[in-house]
Amino acid sequence: MEELLLRQYFEQREHEMYRTCATFSDETKGRERQEAKCDIRTDFQRDRDRIIHCKSFRRLKHKTQVFLAPGGDHYRTRLTHTLEVSQIARTIARALMLNEDLTEAIALGHDLGHTPFGHAGERALSKYAARPFRHNEQSVRVVELLEKNGSGLNLTWEVRDGILNHKTSLKPSTLEGCIVRISDKIAYVNHDIDDGIRAGILVEDSLPKECTNILGHSTRDRINTLIHAIVSYSMDKEIISLPEEHEKALADLRNFMFKDLYTNPLAKSEEIKAERVIGMLFNEYMEHTERLPEEYIAFIDKGIDKETVICDYIAGMTDNYAVEMAEQLFIPKFWQS
């Protein structure tokens, strides 16, 4: 080991520890821009660290998960959701002897492009920009371009692929990306139930019994059951999946959540206002691009169409900042002598 760089030692250890179907850091397809290797970290470890230290990651703590501006301290935000996805995904990757560092990097980066006000912000940008705004595509845009004043984070291909394809309708190219894809669903369905119960909108007994009898009767039990089911079912296969019974129960529980929580008038009562705020900001910046920060004006000067740049700027806002900008632009201030 003394003759090797620590990175090379860790790369060798991956081949000794992981299954042959794992993604190995010394076999990465690489970065868009070549750069010198780190002497102590693998490429995937380095990607994880870049994501944790970037500005977009820090802003997730003030972005809505489900409940807009919740009154309590214990409701999830987009950041705590990301951390819960990372924990679930790392546990599965470790148990299946797949690359935990790659899994963690994808998990930590998967929601970097989410808008303020949760999916309400995503819907609003799609409406006002007259084209679909997809947070998974925006997350890739963040790491490829928007971070570091236009230079991006220069992440490996495997991490970017996992971030892009983490949605249920898509398929990542690596098993590690597939782990994040299913862990995202496990996390949000279960912690949204927990938040719904905290808000008084749901009670445990209101959940469909055909689902909870299979998955468990508490958030903890359901997450534990689903992790164990994935590990047991996928252990000797080159797929990441649930047994059919568990997959159906999770899908049915997710459908229940859409009906009873995600579209619940009490939980969503402020979303119409949030969408209007996004629309007002979008229209204002379309008419007055000079009000954009200099780094975004520079993107327009480089030839990127202004609709895209304005979506970039608004999507990067936290809930608080979007409201603050709306107040600055649209609410008259009283004269003070």
As a whole number of angstroms, the C-alpha radius of gyration is 21 Å
From the N-terminal CA to the C-terminal CA, the straight-line distance is 71 Å
Poorly predicted tracts of residues = none
Helix-strand makeup class: mainly alpha
Largest sheet: none
Order of helices and strands: HHHHHHHHHHHHHHHH
| Counted beta strands | 0
Q: What's the CATH class label of the domain at 44-202 and 266-324? A: Mainly Alpha
CATH architecture of the domain at 44-202 and 266-324: Orthogonal Bundle
Helix tally equals: 16
State the helical fraction. Answer: 55-70%
Q: Which homologous superfamily in CATH is the superfamily of the domain at 44-202 and 266-324?
A: Hypothetical protein af1432
Outline type: flat
For this structure, the CATH topology of the domain at 44-202 and 266-324 is Hypothetical protein af1432
Describe the structure.
With 337 residues, the chain is mostly helical. The chain has a domain at 44-202 and 266-324: Orthogonal Bundle (Hypothetical protein af1432), CATH 1.10.3210.10. The chain is 60% helix and 0% strand. The chain contains 16 helices and no strands. Helix 5 (100-109) packs across helix 9. The longest helix is centred in the middle third of the chain and has 24 residues, at 175-198. The termini are far apart. The model has no long low-confidence stretch (mean pLDDT 94).
Primary descriptors:
337 residues; mainly alpha; Hypothetical protein af1432; 60% helix; 0% strand
How are the SSEs placed, and which strands pair?
Layout: H1 6-17, H2 43-52, H3 55-59, H4 78-95, H5 100-109, H6 119-129, H7 135-150, H8 157-164, H9 175-198, H10 209-215, H11 219-234, H12 244-262, H13 271-287, H14 294-301, H15 306-315, H16 319-330
Helix pairs in contact: 2-5, 4-5, 4-9, 4-11, 5-8, 5-9, 6-13, 6-15, 7-8, 8-9, 9-11, 9-12, 10-12, 13-15, 13-16, 14-15
